[in-house]
Design the sequence.
Protein backbone atom coordinates (compact mmCIF):
# COMPACT_ATOMS: atom_id res chain seq x y z
CA UNK A 1 0.00 0.00 0.00
CA UNK A 2 1.36 3.41 -0.97
CA UNK A 3 0.03 6.95 -0.97
CA UNK A 4 -0.79 8.07 -4.49
CA UNK A 5 0.60 11.55 -3.86
CA UNK A 6 2.19 13.66 -1.18
CA UNK A 7 4.73 11.19 0.17
CA UNK A 8 4.71 9.28 3.44
CA UNK A 9 2.16 9.62 6.24
CA UNK A 10 2.85 12.16 8.96
CA UNK A 11 1.83 9.66 11.62
CA UNK A 12 0.50 6.14 11.89
CA UNK A 13 -1.32 4.46 14.76
CA UNK A 14 -0.80 0.70 14.84
CA UNK A 15 -1.46 -2.38 16.96
CA UNK A 16 -4.90 -1.30 18.11
CA UNK A 17 -8.58 -2.02 17.79
CA UNK A 18 -10.01 0.75 15.63
CA UNK A 19 -13.80 0.92 15.60
CA UNK A 20 -14.36 2.87 12.39
CA UNK A 21 -18.16 3.39 12.58
CA UNK A 22 -18.23 3.13 8.81
CA UNK A 23 -21.29 1.75 7.01
CA UNK A 24 -20.22 -1.81 7.82
CA UNK A 25 -19.08 -1.11 11.40
CA UNK A 26 -15.63 -2.31 10.35
CA UNK A 27 -12.93 -2.88 12.96
CA UNK A 28 -9.30 -2.57 11.83
CA UNK A 29 -5.83 -2.52 13.40
CA UNK A 30 -4.29 0.73 12.23
CA UNK A 31 -4.71 4.09 10.53
CA UNK A 32 -2.52 6.66 8.82
CA UNK A 33 -2.70 10.46 8.94
CA UNK A 34 -1.34 13.15 6.67
CA UNK A 35 -2.09 16.77 7.52
CA UNK A 36 -5.46 16.84 9.22
CA UNK A 37 -6.94 13.91 7.30
CA UNK A 38 -7.02 10.14 7.53
CA UNK A 39 -5.31 8.74 4.44
CA UNK A 40 -5.76 5.05 5.13
CA UNK A 41 -7.22 2.51 7.56
CA UNK A 42 -6.44 -1.18 7.56
CA UNK A 43 -4.09 -3.82 8.85
CA UNK A 44 -0.82 -3.16 10.65
CA UNK A 45 1.12 -4.53 7.71
CA UNK A 46 -0.61 -2.29 5.17
CA UNK A 47 -0.45 0.87 7.27
CA UNK A 48 3.24 0.41 8.16
CA UNK A 49 4.01 0.53 4.43
CA UNK A 50 2.92 4.19 4.48
CA UNK A 51 5.58 5.22 6.99
CA UNK A 52 8.65 7.16 5.94
CA UNK A 53 11.78 8.13 7.84
CA UNK A 54 10.03 11.09 9.50
CA UNK A 55 6.68 9.40 10.18
CA UNK A 56 5.67 9.22 13.83
CA UNK A 57 4.70 5.66 14.72
CA UNK A 58 2.35 5.36 17.68
CA UNK A 59 1.95 1.90 19.19
CA UNK A 60 -1.60 1.61 20.54
CA UNK A 61 -0.61 -1.51 22.47
CA UNK A 62 -4.03 -3.06 21.96
CA UNK A 63 -6.03 0.00 22.99
CA UNK A 64 -9.35 0.88 21.38
CA UNK A 65 -9.83 3.84 19.05
CA UNK A 66 -13.17 5.50 18.31
CA UNK A 67 -14.07 8.45 16.09
CA UNK A 68 -13.96 11.68 18.05
CA UNK A 69 -17.07 12.10 20.18
CA UNK A 70 -19.43 14.81 18.95
CA UNK A 71 -21.56 16.13 21.82
CA UNK A 72 -24.51 17.53 19.88
CA UNK A 73 -26.02 19.47 22.79
CA UNK A 74 -23.54 20.88 25.32
CA UNK A 75 -23.83 24.42 26.66
CA UNK A 76 -20.06 24.62 26.80
CA UNK A 77 -19.71 28.33 27.54
CA UNK A 78 -22.37 28.08 30.25
CA UNK A 79 -20.73 24.94 31.63
CA UNK A 80 -17.45 26.80 32.00
CA UNK A 81 -19.03 29.58 34.05
CA UNK A 82 -21.16 27.23 36.15
CA UNK A 83 -18.13 25.71 37.89
CA UNK A 84 -15.63 27.02 40.43
CA UNK A 85 -14.04 29.50 40.72
CA UNK A 86 -16.79 31.60 39.14
CA UNK A 87 -19.71 29.68 40.62
CA UNK A 88 -20.34 27.54 43.69
CA UNK A 89 -20.64 23.82 42.95
CA UNK A 90 -23.90 22.72 44.57
CA UNK A 91 -24.31 19.42 42.78
CA UNK A 92 -24.58 16.00 44.35
CA UNK A 93 -22.56 14.68 46.15
CA UNK A 94 -21.04 18.09 46.96
CA UNK A 95 -24.31 18.98 48.67
CA UNK A 96 -26.88 16.54 50.03
CA UNK A 97 -29.26 18.88 51.83
CA UNK A 98 -30.63 22.40 51.97
CA UNK A 99 -28.47 22.79 55.08
CA UNK A 100 -25.40 21.99 52.94
CA UNK A 101 -26.43 24.63 50.41
CA UNK A 102 -26.85 27.22 53.14
CA UNK A 103 -23.43 26.42 54.57
CA UNK A 104 -21.77 26.77 51.16
CA UNK A 105 -23.43 30.16 50.65
CA UNK A 106 -22.49 31.22 54.19
CA UNK A 107 -18.83 30.44 53.51
CA UNK A 108 -18.84 32.35 50.22
CA UNK A 109 -20.57 35.36 51.80
CA UNK A 110 -17.86 35.50 54.45
CA UNK A 111 -15.19 35.55 51.74
CA UNK A 112 -16.59 38.29 49.49
CA UNK A 113 -17.47 41.94 49.94
CA UNK A 114 -20.98 43.08 50.93
CA UNK A 115 -23.04 43.69 47.80
CA UNK A 116 -21.01 41.26 45.67
CA UNK A 117 -23.11 38.72 43.78
CA UNK A 118 -22.92 35.07 44.81
CA UNK A 119 -23.67 32.46 42.15
CA UNK A 120 -24.32 28.75 42.60
CA UNK A 121 -25.22 25.88 40.29
CA UNK A 122 -26.31 22.26 40.35
CA UNK A 123 -28.66 21.71 43.30
CA UNK A 124 -31.20 18.96 42.74
CA UNK A 125 -34.30 18.32 44.84
CA UNK A 126 -33.91 14.62 44.08
CA UNK A 127 -30.85 14.56 46.35
CA UNK A 128 -31.76 17.08 49.09
CA UNK A 129 -32.58 15.36 52.38
CA UNK A 130 -35.19 17.84 53.59
CA UNK A 131 -37.16 17.66 50.35
CA UNK A 132 -37.02 13.88 50.21
CA UNK A 133 -38.50 13.78 53.71
CA UNK A 134 -41.13 16.45 53.02
CA UNK A 135 -41.82 17.36 49.39
CA UNK A 136 -43.42 20.63 50.45
CA UNK A 137 -40.03 21.73 51.81
CA UNK A 138 -38.40 23.66 48.99
CA UNK A 139 -35.46 26.01 49.20
CA UNK A 140 -36.53 29.66 49.47
CA UNK A 141 -35.21 33.18 49.56
CA UNK A 142 -35.57 33.15 53.32
CA UNK A 143 -33.15 30.23 53.62
CA UNK A 144 -30.58 32.27 51.73
CA UNK A 145 -31.34 35.48 53.64
CA UNK A 146 -30.23 33.75 56.83
CA UNK A 147 -26.73 33.15 55.54
CA UNK A 148 -26.17 36.05 53.10
CA UNK A 149 -28.31 39.03 54.07
CA UNK A 150 -25.92 41.58 52.56
CA UNK A 151 -25.18 39.89 49.22
CA UNK A 152 -27.48 39.21 46.27
CA UNK A 153 -27.54 35.43 45.76
CA UNK A 154 -28.98 33.21 43.04
CA UNK A 155 -28.58 29.45 42.76
CA UNK A 156 -29.49 27.62 39.55
CA UNK A 157 -30.66 24.02 39.75
CA UNK A 158 -29.05 21.19 37.79
CA UNK A 159 -31.65 21.42 35.00
CA UNK A 160 -31.12 25.17 34.45
CA UNK A 161 -34.92 25.51 34.39
CA UNK A 162 -35.32 26.99 37.84
CA UNK A 163 -33.33 29.11 40.22
CA UNK A 164 -33.76 30.44 43.73
CA UNK A 165 -32.72 33.96 44.67
CA UNK A 166 -32.53 35.71 48.02
CA UNK A 167 -34.38 38.87 48.99
CA UNK A 168 -31.44 41.12 48.16
CA UNK A 169 -31.24 39.72 44.62
CA UNK A 170 -34.99 40.09 44.08
CA UNK A 171 -34.79 43.68 45.33
CA UNK A 172 -31.95 44.57 42.95
CA UNK A 173 -33.89 43.01 40.06
CA UNK A 174 -37.14 44.75 41.02
CA UNK A 175 -39.11 41.52 41.43
CA UNK A 176 -42.02 41.98 43.81
CA UNK A 177 -45.41 40.46 44.67
CA UNK A 178 -46.87 42.51 41.81
CA UNK A 179 -44.46 41.13 39.17
CA UNK A 180 -46.06 38.96 36.49
CA UNK A 181 -44.84 36.71 33.69
CA UNK A 182 -46.36 34.98 30.66
CA UNK A 183 -47.77 31.43 30.87
CA UNK A 184 -45.17 28.67 30.71
CA UNK A 185 -42.92 30.48 33.17
CA UNK A 186 -43.49 31.31 36.84
CA UNK A 187 -42.52 33.63 39.63
CA UNK A 188 -43.40 31.28 42.48
CA UNK A 189 -45.31 33.06 45.25
CA UNK A 190 -46.31 32.06 48.75
CA UNK A 191 -49.99 30.99 48.60
CA UNK A 192 -50.78 32.72 51.90
CA UNK A 193 -48.93 36.04 51.56
CA UNK A 194 -48.48 36.42 47.80
CA UNK A 195 -44.82 37.22 48.33
CA UNK A 196 -42.24 35.76 45.91
CA UNK A 197 -40.52 32.74 47.46
CA UNK A 198 -37.39 33.43 45.42
CA UNK A 199 -38.05 30.53 43.02
CA UNK A 200 -38.09 31.52 39.35
CA UNK A 201 -39.10 28.88 36.80
CA UNK A 202 -38.10 28.89 33.10
CA UNK A 203 -36.18 31.50 31.12
CA UNK A 204 -38.69 34.37 30.99
CA UNK A 205 -38.93 34.51 34.79
CA UNK A 206 -35.22 33.91 35.23
CA UNK A 207 -34.51 36.72 32.77
CA UNK A 208 -36.17 39.21 35.11
CA UNK A 209 -33.37 38.49 37.56
CA UNK A 210 -30.51 37.85 35.16
CA UNK A 211 -30.72 41.29 33.60
CA UNK A 212 -29.61 42.70 36.96
CA UNK A 213 -26.61 40.37 37.34
CA UNK A 214 -23.25 41.90 36.34
CA UNK A 215 -21.69 40.03 33.41
CA UNK A 216 -18.38 38.24 33.47
CA UNK A 217 -15.62 40.14 31.69
CA UNK A 218 -14.08 38.82 28.49
CA UNK A 219 -11.03 37.36 30.21
CA UNK A 220 -13.24 35.45 32.63
CA UNK A 221 -15.27 34.14 29.69
CA UNK A 222 -12.11 33.15 27.82
CA UNK A 223 -10.69 31.31 30.83
CA UNK A 224 -14.00 29.51 31.39
CA UNK A 225 -14.24 28.41 27.76
CA UNK A 226 -10.62 27.23 27.59
CA UNK A 227 -11.16 25.21 30.75
CA UNK A 228 -14.18 23.52 29.22
CA UNK A 229 -12.39 22.71 25.96
CA UNK A 230 -9.62 21.05 27.96
CA UNK A 231 -12.24 19.06 29.87
CA UNK A 232 -13.86 17.99 26.62
CA UNK A 233 -10.54 16.89 25.13
CA UNK A 234 -9.72 14.89 28.25
CA UNK A 235 -12.98 12.99 27.76
CA UNK A 236 -12.38 12.27 24.06
CA UNK A 237 -14.78 14.92 22.75
CA UNK A 238 -13.61 16.55 19.53
CA UNK A 239 -16.78 18.38 18.40
CA UNK A 240 -19.77 19.94 20.12
CA UNK A 241 -22.80 22.08 19.48
CA UNK A 242 -23.12 25.04 21.85
CA UNK A 243 -26.86 25.43 21.40
CA UNK A 244 -27.81 28.87 22.67
CA UNK A 245 -25.42 31.75 22.03
CA UNK A 246 -26.33 35.18 20.74
CA UNK A 247 -28.15 38.41 21.54
CA UNK A 248 -30.87 36.60 23.49
CA UNK A 249 -28.28 35.36 25.96
CA UNK A 250 -26.46 38.63 26.57
CA UNK A 251 -27.91 38.90 30.08
CA UNK A 252 -28.07 35.18 30.83
CA UNK A 253 -25.52 33.37 33.00
CA UNK A 254 -23.35 36.43 33.46
CA UNK A 255 -23.34 37.04 29.72
CA UNK A 256 -21.87 33.61 28.94
CA UNK A 257 -24.71 32.99 26.46
CA UNK A 258 -24.15 36.31 24.71
CA UNK A 259 -22.39 37.07 21.42
CA UNK A 260 -19.07 37.69 23.18
CA UNK A 261 -18.67 33.96 23.78
CA UNK A 262 -18.88 33.39 20.03
CA UNK A 263 -16.16 36.03 19.79
CA UNK A 264 -14.00 34.09 22.24
CA UNK A 265 -14.44 30.93 20.16
CA UNK A 266 -13.45 32.93 17.07
CA UNK A 267 -10.37 34.35 18.81
CA UNK A 268 -9.24 30.83 19.70
CA UNK A 269 -9.87 29.66 16.16
CA UNK A 270 -7.85 32.54 14.69
CA UNK A 271 -5.02 31.82 17.14
CA UNK A 272 -4.97 28.18 16.09
CA UNK A 273 -5.74 27.07 19.64
CA UNK A 274 -9.31 25.87 19.26
CA UNK A 275 -9.09 22.19 20.21
CA UNK A 276 -12.76 21.27 19.78
CA UNK A 277 -14.83 21.87 16.65
CA UNK A 278 -17.69 24.21 17.56
CA UNK A 279 -21.14 24.43 16.02
CA UNK A 280 -23.37 27.24 17.31
CA UNK A 281 -27.14 27.57 17.42
CA UNK A 282 -28.09 31.23 17.68
CA UNK A 283 -30.18 32.42 20.61
CA UNK A 284 -32.28 35.51 20.02
CA UNK A 285 -35.01 37.23 21.99
CA UNK A 286 -35.17 39.10 25.27
CA UNK A 287 -33.24 37.25 27.97
CA UNK A 288 -33.79 34.03 26.05
CA UNK A 289 -37.59 34.48 25.70
CA UNK A 290 -38.13 34.16 21.96
CA UNK A 291 -41.01 35.25 19.75
CA UNK A 292 -41.69 35.46 16.03
CA UNK A 293 -41.10 39.20 16.24
CA UNK A 294 -37.64 38.54 17.70
CA UNK A 295 -36.79 36.26 14.78
CA UNK A 296 -38.11 38.70 12.19
CA UNK A 297 -35.90 41.40 13.68
CA UNK A 298 -32.79 39.31 14.32
CA UNK A 299 -32.35 36.65 11.64
CA UNK A 300 -31.73 39.05 8.74
CA UNK A 301 -28.79 40.51 10.66
CA UNK A 302 -26.83 37.24 10.56
CA UNK A 303 -27.34 36.21 6.96
CA UNK A 304 -29.39 34.03 4.67
CA UNK A 305 -27.43 30.78 4.71
CA UNK A 306 -27.95 27.48 6.46
CA UNK A 307 -24.29 27.17 7.45
CA UNK A 308 -21.89 30.03 8.19
CA UNK A 309 -18.24 29.30 8.97
CA UNK A 310 -15.92 26.34 8.51
CA UNK A 311 -15.15 22.93 9.99
CA UNK A 312 -13.67 24.54 13.14
CA UNK A 313 -16.32 27.12 13.97
CA UNK A 314 -19.66 27.48 12.28
CA UNK A 315 -23.19 28.66 12.90
CA UNK A 316 -26.39 28.65 10.99
CA UNK A 317 -29.01 27.15 13.24
CA UNK A 318 -31.45 28.69 15.69
CA UNK A 319 -32.27 27.44 19.20
CA UNK A 320 -35.98 27.61 20.02
CA UNK A 321 -37.85 26.61 23.16
CA UNK A 322 -41.19 24.83 22.97
CA UNK A 323 -41.77 23.92 26.63
CA UNK A 324 -40.02 23.24 29.92
CA UNK A 325 -39.37 20.06 31.93
CA UNK A 326 -41.53 17.59 33.88
CA UNK A 327 -39.95 18.38 37.26
CA UNK A 328 -41.40 21.90 37.15
CA UNK A 329 -44.61 20.77 35.42
CA UNK A 330 -43.72 23.00 32.48
CA UNK A 331 -43.31 20.20 29.91
CA UNK A 332 -46.50 20.29 27.81
CA UNK A 333 -48.25 16.94 28.13
CA UNK A 334 -51.42 15.47 26.63
CA UNK A 335 -52.17 13.55 29.82
CA UNK A 336 -52.30 15.50 33.08
CA UNK A 337 -49.57 15.28 35.67
CA UNK A 338 -50.52 13.03 38.62
CA UNK A 339 -51.24 16.09 40.76
CA UNK A 340 -52.92 18.07 37.98
CA UNK A 341 -51.96 20.38 35.14
CA UNK A 342 -50.59 19.77 31.67
CA UNK A 343 -47.81 22.33 31.34
CA UNK A 344 -47.69 24.70 28.39
CA UNK A 345 -45.76 25.96 25.43
CA UNK A 346 -43.45 28.80 26.45
CA UNK A 347 -44.04 31.01 23.41
CA UNK A 348 -46.40 34.01 23.25
CA UNK A 349 -50.14 33.48 22.95
CA UNK A 350 -53.30 33.76 25.02
CA UNK A 351 -54.56 30.27 24.18
CA UNK A 352 -53.06 26.86 23.43
CA UNK A 353 -53.93 27.24 19.75
CA UNK A 354 -52.35 30.69 19.55
CA UNK A 355 -49.14 29.40 21.11
CA UNK A 356 -49.14 26.39 18.78
CA UNK A 357 -49.54 28.67 15.76
CA UNK A 358 -46.90 31.09 17.05
CA UNK A 359 -44.35 28.28 17.37
CA UNK A 360 -45.14 27.07 13.86
CA UNK A 361 -44.70 30.63 12.59
CA UNK A 362 -41.21 30.82 14.09
CA UNK A 363 -40.20 27.52 12.51
CA UNK A 364 -41.56 28.54 9.10
CA UNK A 365 -39.77 31.91 9.24
CA UNK A 366 -36.42 30.37 10.20
CA UNK A 367 -36.80 27.66 7.56
CA UNK A 368 -37.61 30.18 4.85
CA UNK A 369 -34.41 32.06 5.70
CA UNK A 370 -32.30 28.90 5.51
CA UNK A 371 -31.77 28.30 9.22
CA UNK A 372 -31.86 24.89 10.84
CA UNK A 373 -34.01 24.79 13.99
CA UNK A 374 -33.01 22.87 17.10
CA UNK A 375 -35.98 22.99 19.46
CA UNK A 376 -36.12 22.16 23.15
CA UNK A 377 -39.20 19.93 23.35
CA UNK A 378 -39.85 17.49 26.18
CA UNK A 379 -43.59 16.89 26.58
CA UNK A 380 -45.45 14.80 24.01
CA UNK A 381 -47.81 17.67 23.19
CA UNK A 382 -44.96 20.13 22.68
CA UNK A 383 -43.16 17.63 20.46
CA UNK A 384 -46.28 17.26 18.32
CA UNK A 385 -46.48 21.04 17.90
CA UNK A 386 -42.83 21.12 16.77
CA UNK A 387 -43.37 18.35 14.25
CA UNK A 388 -46.46 20.15 12.94
CA UNK A 389 -44.30 23.24 12.47
CA UNK A 390 -41.51 21.34 10.74
CA UNK A 391 -43.94 19.77 8.28
CA UNK A 392 -45.64 23.10 7.60
CA UNK A 393 -42.26 24.66 6.85
CA UNK A 394 -41.31 21.86 4.47
CA UNK A 395 -44.67 22.11 2.69
CA UNK A 396 -44.04 25.79 1.96
CA UNK A 397 -40.35 25.38 1.10
CA UNK A 398 -39.02 21.93 0.20
CA UNK A 399 -35.39 22.52 1.28
CA UNK A 400 -34.31 19.98 3.91
CA UNK A 401 -32.44 21.82 6.67
CA UNK A 402 -32.21 18.94 9.13
CA UNK A 403 -34.39 20.50 11.79
CA UNK A 404 -34.33 18.52 15.00
CA UNK A 405 -35.87 17.98 18.39
CA UNK A 406 -33.70 18.51 21.45
CA UNK A 407 -34.43 16.10 24.33
CA UNK A 408 -37.70 14.66 22.95
CA UNK A 409 -38.24 12.73 26.21
CA UNK A 410 -41.89 11.84 25.76
CA UNK A 411 -42.20 11.48 21.99
CA UNK A 412 -45.03 9.20 20.87
CA UNK A 413 -44.85 6.38 18.33
CA UNK A 414 -46.99 8.31 15.85
CA UNK A 415 -44.65 11.31 15.97
CA UNK A 416 -41.62 9.02 15.69
CA UNK A 417 -43.06 7.80 12.40
CA UNK A 418 -43.63 11.37 11.21
CA UNK A 419 -40.12 12.57 11.97
CA UNK A 420 -38.56 9.46 10.43
CA UNK A 421 -40.54 9.93 7.22
CA UNK A 422 -39.59 13.60 6.94
CA UNK A 423 -35.88 13.65 7.74
CA UNK A 424 -36.19 15.29 11.16
CA UNK A 425 -33.48 14.54 13.71
CA UNK A 426 -33.40 13.98 17.47
CA UNK A 427 -30.68 15.00 19.92
CA UNK A 428 -31.47 12.99 23.05
CA UNK A 429 -29.68 12.60 26.37
CA UNK A 430 -29.65 8.99 27.51
CA UNK A 431 -27.58 10.03 30.54
CA UNK A 432 -30.59 11.96 31.89
CA UNK A 433 -32.48 8.69 32.30
CA UNK A 434 -29.69 7.63 34.65
CA UNK A 435 -29.70 10.97 36.49
CA UNK A 436 -33.39 11.44 37.26
CA UNK A 437 -35.32 8.31 36.36
CA UNK A 438 -36.69 8.00 39.90
CA UNK A 439 -37.84 11.61 39.84
CA UNK A 440 -39.73 10.99 36.60
CA UNK A 441 -41.38 7.97 38.27
CA UNK A 442 -42.88 10.44 40.73
CA UNK A 443 -43.70 13.47 38.57
CA UNK A 444 -45.07 11.57 35.55
CA UNK A 445 -45.85 8.10 36.86
CA UNK A 446 -44.24 4.72 36.18
CA UNK A 447 -45.95 4.13 32.83
CA UNK A 448 -44.66 7.34 31.29
CA UNK A 449 -41.26 6.88 32.93
CA UNK A 450 -40.97 3.54 31.09
CA UNK A 451 -41.53 5.39 27.78
CA UNK A 452 -39.12 8.27 28.39
CA UNK A 453 -36.33 8.55 25.79
CA UNK A 454 -37.56 5.72 23.49
CA UNK A 455 -34.20 5.22 21.76
CA UNK A 456 -34.98 1.73 20.48
CA UNK A 457 -38.17 2.92 18.81
CA UNK A 458 -36.37 5.90 17.28
CA UNK A 459 -33.62 3.77 15.75
CA UNK A 460 -35.99 1.06 14.56
CA UNK A 461 -38.01 3.72 12.73
CA UNK A 462 -34.89 5.04 11.01
CA UNK A 463 -34.68 8.37 12.83
CA UNK A 464 -31.39 10.28 12.70
CA UNK A 465 -30.51 9.92 16.39
CA UNK A 466 -27.75 11.79 18.18
CA UNK A 467 -26.79 11.48 21.84
CA UNK A 468 -25.45 14.32 23.96
CA UNK A 469 -24.87 15.54 27.51
CA UNK A 470 -26.82 18.81 27.89
CA UNK A 471 -23.90 20.07 30.01
CA UNK A 472 -24.03 21.64 32.57
CA UNK A 473 -27.21 19.67 33.32
CA UNK A 474 -24.86 16.69 33.41
CA UNK A 475 -21.10 16.46 33.01
CA UNK A 476 -20.09 15.77 29.39
CA UNK A 477 -19.57 12.11 30.25
CA UNK A 478 -20.41 10.26 27.05
CA UNK A 479 -19.21 6.92 28.43
CA UNK A 480 -21.85 7.19 31.15
CA UNK A 481 -24.30 8.16 28.38
CA UNK A 482 -23.50 4.99 26.42
CA UNK A 483 -23.92 2.90 29.57
CA UNK A 484 -27.25 4.58 30.33
CA UNK A 485 -28.53 3.94 26.80
CA UNK A 486 -27.64 0.27 27.12
CA UNK A 487 -28.91 -0.30 30.69
CA UNK A 488 -31.59 2.37 31.38
CA UNK A 489 -30.78 2.06 35.07
CA UNK A 490 -31.38 4.76 37.70
CA UNK A 491 -28.42 6.42 39.42
CA UNK A 492 -30.17 6.70 42.79
CA UNK A 493 -31.99 3.37 43.13
CA UNK A 494 -30.66 1.15 40.36
CA UNK A 495 -34.21 0.63 39.08
CA UNK A 496 -34.50 -0.25 35.39
CA UNK A 497 -37.18 1.64 33.47
CA UNK A 498 -38.11 0.81 29.88
CA UNK A 499 -35.84 -2.15 29.16
CA UNK A 500 -37.43 -2.54 25.72
CA UNK A 501 -35.99 0.85 24.79
CA UNK A 502 -32.39 -0.23 25.34
CA UNK A 503 -29.97 0.05 22.44
CA UNK A 504 -26.61 -1.64 21.83
CA UNK A 505 -23.18 -0.23 22.61
CA UNK A 506 -22.39 0.01 18.90
CA UNK A 507 -25.63 1.90 18.25
CA UNK A 508 -24.91 4.32 21.09
CA UNK A 509 -21.40 4.97 19.75
CA UNK A 510 -22.82 5.68 16.30
CA UNK A 511 -25.30 8.15 17.82
CA UNK A 512 -22.44 10.01 19.54
CA UNK A 513 -20.39 10.14 16.33
CA UNK A 514 -22.12 9.80 12.95
CA UNK A 515 -25.51 10.77 14.37
CA UNK A 516 -24.15 14.06 15.61
CA UNK A 517 -22.14 14.65 12.44
CA UNK A 518 -25.38 14.38 10.45
CA UNK A 519 -26.99 17.12 12.56
CA UNK A 520 -23.92 19.29 11.84
CA UNK A 521 -24.22 18.66 8.06
CA UNK A 522 -20.73 17.15 8.38
CA UNK A 523 -21.22 13.41 7.93
CA UNK A 524 -18.98 13.46 4.84
CA UNK A 525 -16.18 15.09 6.85
CA UNK A 526 -16.29 13.52 10.31
CA UNK A 527 -18.09 10.97 12.48
CA UNK A 528 -16.26 7.87 11.26
CA UNK A 529 -12.66 6.82 10.70
CA UNK A 530 -12.39 6.50 6.94
CA UNK A 531 -10.02 7.65 4.25
CA UNK A 532 -10.47 11.35 3.45
CA UNK A 533 -12.20 12.25 6.70
CA UNK A 534 -10.86 14.51 9.41
CA UNK A 535 -8.38 12.80 11.73
CA UNK A 536 -10.47 13.24 14.88
CA UNK A 537 -10.44 10.32 17.31
CA UNK A 538 -10.06 9.20 20.90
CA UNK A 539 -8.16 6.30 22.44
CA UNK A 540 -9.66 4.20 25.24
CA UNK A 541 -7.83 1.96 27.69
CA UNK A 542 -10.41 -0.84 27.37
CA UNK A 543 -12.46 -2.42 24.61
CA UNK A 544 -15.84 -0.71 24.91
CA UNK A 545 -17.52 -3.42 22.83
CA UNK A 546 -16.63 -6.19 25.26
CA UNK A 547 -16.45 -4.80 28.79
CA UNK A 548 -19.53 -5.55 30.90
CA UNK A 549 -22.15 -2.86 30.23
CA UNK A 550 -22.23 -1.79 33.87
CA UNK A 551 -18.46 -1.03 33.68
CA UNK A 552 -18.50 1.20 30.59
CA UNK A 553 -18.43 4.35 32.72
CA UNK A 554 -15.12 3.21 34.23
CA UNK A 555 -13.30 3.16 30.88
CA UNK A 556 -10.65 5.87 30.63
CA UNK A 557 -9.87 8.03 27.63
CA UNK A 558 -6.08 8.12 27.35
CA UNK A 559 -5.60 10.31 24.28
CA UNK A 560 -7.53 12.61 21.96
CA UNK A 561 -6.52 13.67 18.45
CA UNK A 562 -8.17 16.53 16.55
CA UNK A 563 -7.20 17.27 12.98
CA UNK A 564 -4.24 14.95 13.30
CA UNK A 565 -2.84 16.78 16.34
CA UNK A 566 -2.72 15.24 19.79
CA UNK A 567 -4.64 17.61 22.07
CA UNK A 568 -4.74 15.30 25.10
CA UNK A 569 -2.32 12.57 26.11
CA UNK A 570 -2.50 10.72 29.41
CA UNK A 571 0.39 8.42 28.64
CA UNK A 572 -0.29 6.94 25.18
CA UNK A 573 3.04 8.04 23.68
CA UNK A 574 5.23 7.66 26.77
Sequence:
Amino acid sequence: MTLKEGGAADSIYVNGKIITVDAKDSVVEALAIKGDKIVAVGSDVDIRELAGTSTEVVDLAGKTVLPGINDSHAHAAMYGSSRPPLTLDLGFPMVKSIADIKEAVRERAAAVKPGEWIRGNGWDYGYLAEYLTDRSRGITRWDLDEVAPHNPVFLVDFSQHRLVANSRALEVAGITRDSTIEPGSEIVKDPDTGEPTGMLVELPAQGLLMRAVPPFNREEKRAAIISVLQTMNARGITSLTDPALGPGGAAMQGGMLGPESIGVYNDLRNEGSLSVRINVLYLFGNYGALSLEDLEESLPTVGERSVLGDEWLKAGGVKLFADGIPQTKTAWMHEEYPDGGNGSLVVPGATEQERHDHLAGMIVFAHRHGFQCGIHAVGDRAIRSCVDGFLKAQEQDSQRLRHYLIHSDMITESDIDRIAANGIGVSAQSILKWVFSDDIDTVLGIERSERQFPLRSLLDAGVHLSLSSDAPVTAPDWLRGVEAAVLRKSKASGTVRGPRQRITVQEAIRAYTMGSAWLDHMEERKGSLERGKLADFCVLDQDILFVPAEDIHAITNVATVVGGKVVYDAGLRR
About this structure: The radius of gyration is 24 Å. The chain has 18 helices and 25 strands. The first helix runs from residue 44 to 48.
